[in-house]
Design a protein that fits this description.
5 helices, 138 residues, four-stranded antiparallel β-sheet, alpha+beta
Length: 138
Protein backbone atom coordinates (compact mmCIF):
# COMPACT_ATOMS: atom_id res chain seq x y z
CA UNK A 1 0.00 0.00 0.00
CA UNK A 2 1.48 3.37 -0.98
CA UNK A 3 2.28 5.77 1.80
CA UNK A 4 0.76 9.25 2.13
CA UNK A 5 3.82 10.93 0.66
CA UNK A 6 3.65 8.87 -2.53
CA UNK A 7 -0.09 9.47 -2.90
CA UNK A 8 0.40 13.19 -2.28
CA UNK A 9 3.17 13.44 -4.88
CA UNK A 10 1.08 11.59 -7.47
CA UNK A 11 -1.86 13.87 -6.79
CA UNK A 12 0.34 16.97 -7.06
CA UNK A 13 1.80 15.64 -10.33
CA UNK A 14 -1.68 15.09 -11.76
CA UNK A 15 -2.79 18.59 -10.77
CA UNK A 16 0.40 20.16 -12.17
CA UNK A 17 0.00 18.27 -15.45
CA UNK A 18 -3.69 19.24 -15.54
CA UNK A 19 -2.82 22.91 -15.09
CA UNK A 20 -0.35 22.87 -17.97
CA UNK A 21 -2.71 20.95 -20.27
CA UNK A 22 -5.67 23.22 -19.48
CA UNK A 23 -3.59 26.32 -20.31
CA UNK A 24 -2.29 24.82 -23.57
CA UNK A 25 -5.75 23.63 -24.66
CA UNK A 26 -7.27 27.02 -23.76
CA UNK A 27 -4.72 28.87 -25.91
CA UNK A 28 -5.17 26.40 -28.78
CA UNK A 29 -8.94 26.94 -28.70
CA UNK A 30 -8.41 30.72 -28.79
CA UNK A 31 -6.22 30.56 -31.88
CA UNK A 32 -7.55 27.46 -33.68
CA UNK A 33 -10.76 25.44 -33.91
CA UNK A 34 -11.94 22.46 -31.90
CA UNK A 35 -11.28 20.30 -34.97
CA UNK A 36 -7.60 21.27 -34.97
CA UNK A 37 -7.33 20.58 -31.24
CA UNK A 38 -9.03 17.20 -31.75
CA UNK A 39 -6.49 16.25 -34.44
CA UNK A 40 -3.61 17.21 -32.14
CA UNK A 41 -4.61 14.65 -29.52
CA UNK A 42 -2.47 11.53 -29.07
CA UNK A 43 -3.45 8.55 -31.19
CA UNK A 44 -6.57 6.66 -30.17
CA UNK A 45 -6.11 3.96 -27.60
CA UNK A 46 -8.33 0.93 -27.21
CA UNK A 47 -8.34 0.55 -23.43
CA UNK A 48 -11.13 2.11 -21.39
CA UNK A 49 -10.11 3.89 -18.21
CA UNK A 50 -11.55 2.65 -14.94
CA UNK A 51 -14.32 5.12 -14.01
CA UNK A 52 -12.54 6.05 -10.77
CA UNK A 53 -9.42 7.03 -12.70
CA UNK A 54 -11.32 9.02 -15.32
CA UNK A 55 -13.20 10.86 -12.57
CA UNK A 56 -9.96 11.55 -10.67
CA UNK A 57 -8.40 13.12 -13.78
CA UNK A 58 -11.59 15.10 -14.44
CA UNK A 59 -11.64 16.36 -10.85
CA UNK A 60 -8.08 17.66 -11.17
CA UNK A 61 -8.89 19.37 -14.47
CA UNK A 62 -12.04 21.00 -13.05
CA UNK A 63 -10.09 22.27 -10.05
CA UNK A 64 -7.29 23.89 -12.04
CA UNK A 65 -9.70 25.16 -14.73
CA UNK A 66 -11.08 27.57 -12.13
CA UNK A 67 -7.69 29.32 -12.26
CA UNK A 68 -7.65 29.68 -16.06
CA UNK A 69 -9.93 32.38 -17.49
CA UNK A 70 -12.28 31.04 -20.16
CA UNK A 71 -11.54 27.37 -19.45
CA UNK A 72 -15.00 26.26 -20.52
CA UNK A 73 -16.52 22.81 -20.72
CA UNK A 74 -14.85 22.27 -24.11
CA UNK A 75 -11.42 23.17 -22.75
CA UNK A 76 -11.95 20.83 -19.82
CA UNK A 77 -13.21 17.96 -21.97
CA UNK A 78 -10.18 18.19 -24.28
CA UNK A 79 -7.80 18.44 -21.30
CA UNK A 80 -9.24 15.30 -19.70
CA UNK A 81 -9.16 13.53 -23.07
CA UNK A 82 -5.47 14.39 -23.50
CA UNK A 83 -4.52 13.31 -19.98
CA UNK A 84 -6.31 9.98 -20.43
CA UNK A 85 -4.83 9.45 -23.91
CA UNK A 86 -1.23 9.88 -22.75
CA UNK A 87 -1.98 7.14 -20.21
CA UNK A 88 -3.25 4.91 -23.05
CA UNK A 89 -7.00 5.31 -22.58
CA UNK A 90 -9.67 6.04 -25.18
CA UNK A 91 -12.38 8.66 -24.71
CA UNK A 92 -14.75 10.79 -26.76
CA UNK A 93 -15.50 14.51 -26.50
CA UNK A 94 -19.15 15.09 -27.29
CA UNK A 95 -20.82 18.39 -28.12
CA UNK A 96 -24.54 19.05 -27.85
CA UNK A 97 -27.07 21.87 -27.80
CA UNK A 98 -30.31 22.70 -26.02
CA UNK A 99 -32.78 25.55 -26.04
CA UNK A 100 -32.59 27.57 -22.82
CA UNK A 101 -35.67 28.92 -21.04
CA UNK A 102 -34.85 32.32 -22.59
CA UNK A 103 -35.15 30.76 -26.05
CA UNK A 104 -31.43 30.98 -26.80
CA UNK A 105 -29.42 27.98 -27.97
CA UNK A 106 -26.83 26.75 -25.46
CA UNK A 107 -23.92 24.50 -26.42
CA UNK A 108 -22.14 22.15 -24.04
CA UNK A 109 -19.26 19.67 -24.21
CA UNK A 110 -18.63 16.59 -22.12
CA UNK A 111 -16.24 13.67 -22.15
CA UNK A 112 -17.22 10.03 -22.27
CA UNK A 113 -14.78 7.37 -21.14
CA UNK A 114 -16.52 4.12 -21.91
CA UNK A 115 -19.99 4.51 -20.38
CA UNK A 116 -18.75 6.99 -17.77
CA UNK A 117 -19.35 10.72 -18.13
CA UNK A 118 -15.94 11.86 -16.90
CA UNK A 119 -16.62 15.58 -17.11
CA UNK A 120 -19.49 17.81 -18.16
CA UNK A 121 -22.29 16.96 -15.77
CA UNK A 122 -24.56 14.23 -14.57
CA UNK A 123 -26.43 11.86 -16.90
CA UNK A 124 -29.63 13.86 -16.26
CA UNK A 125 -27.90 17.14 -17.20
CA UNK A 126 -26.34 15.65 -20.32
CA UNK A 127 -29.70 14.14 -21.39
CA UNK A 128 -31.04 17.70 -21.87
CA UNK A 129 -28.65 18.21 -24.81
CA UNK A 130 -29.07 17.00 -28.36
CA UNK A 131 -25.68 15.62 -29.43
CA UNK A 132 -24.24 17.34 -32.50
CA UNK A 133 -20.71 16.03 -32.71
CA UNK A 134 -18.55 13.31 -31.28
CA UNK A 135 -14.82 13.93 -31.38
CA UNK A 136 -13.17 10.56 -30.73
CA UNK A 137 -9.43 10.18 -30.55
CA UNK A 138 -8.14 9.04 -33.91
Amino acid sequence: MPDRMTVGLKRFGLWAASFVVVIVVRFLLIFTSHRVVSRMMPKRRSRIAHPAMALRVAEAVRAVARLVPGATCLTQAFAVQFLLAVRGYASDVQIGVKRAASGEIEAHAWLMSGHCIATGGSPAEIAEYVPLAELPLR
